[in-house]
């Protein structure tokens, strides 16, 4: 937990380096004590940032806002692994970052009825099979709000990641869902009170959606959109991405189809596809080191796939993607593609932080 006397300095640092979390992290890596880090900085904006920090500290105290500092043990461990994770998170609600599975579900704001129904069915079926499931999304129109509503109806936690501070809800029409989420889940943001829902805020918040999640599901997306940004961020974090396919003529599925075509996402047609790909235990069955009926003959593997699989078999605790690329002398992009193919063939399993293990 953050010491009360340290909080104003952490807030001041995040305000001074707003939009540049990597810089704030670098300074705190050199000077772990936030007060010392603040004292060492010589920038013109310091007085204004300090005044703003004092205001925000009072807002946090008055409204009983939760705060999570990057270097504290209670900071969300999945997000902490991301190089651009926020130094400080503000939260409201009943949130458990430690237990269970965390899945983000995102998609277009102009969702079809098919997409919204698929989202609801996916959440309901996953909630029945996976213990301690949490659904993460951004409260936007379309697929986002469908995911939150489904989680609320299913009685499981849902986390809302807005692009603004905790003094407002956007869009206002989704206030009821946000209030209900406070009872089972909550709201998580890096933005101070008074921060407005600017477009660049929503782009930046997508990394929190991706970073908090073990995997990201894109239900519907047009050829361009925010959900594709979230998917790319998850892909860059070496987190599994799943996309729901659609007909070639469906504009609402164009982005999903491209993700699958470019091998940046695995095809998702049912909850079982996700559970089996993640090799998760369910309420009905324990997790298995080898799935029933899985072919253990390596004859179906390409030479590069076999090379990576053998390296992983020799590593008792798995290997990181970068280490695999160096050991196999294969480019990073080829490694990612090959590992995805091995995952689809159920020969390897991915873990948070970019680690892979042979199954």
Structure description:
Mean pLDDT is 91; it is low at 286-295. The longest helix has 17 residues, at 46-62. It is globular, with a radius of gyration of 21 Å. With 359 residues, it is α/β, with parallel strands linked by helices. The relative contact order is 0.10. Helix 6 links the parallel strand 3 (101-106) and strand 4 (133-137). It is 44% helix and 14% strand. The chain folds into three domains: 7-93, no CATH class; 101-278, 3-Layer(aba) Sandwich (Rossmann fold), CATH 3.40.50; 298-358, Arc Repressor Mutant, subunit A, CATH 1.10.10. It is built from 15 helices and twelve strands. Strands 1-2-6-5-4-3-7-8-9 form a nine-stranded mixed β-sheet, sandwiched between helices. A three-stranded antiparallel β-sheet has the order 10-12-11.
Number of extended strands:
12
> How large, in whole angstroms, is the Cα Rg?
21 Å
The name of the CATH topology of the largest domain is Rossmann fold
Give the helix level as a range of percent.
Answer: 40-55%
pLDDT averaged over residues: 91
- Give the overall silhouette: globular
The CATH architecture of the largest domain? 3-Layer(aba) Sandwich
Structural class of the secondary elements?
alpha/beta
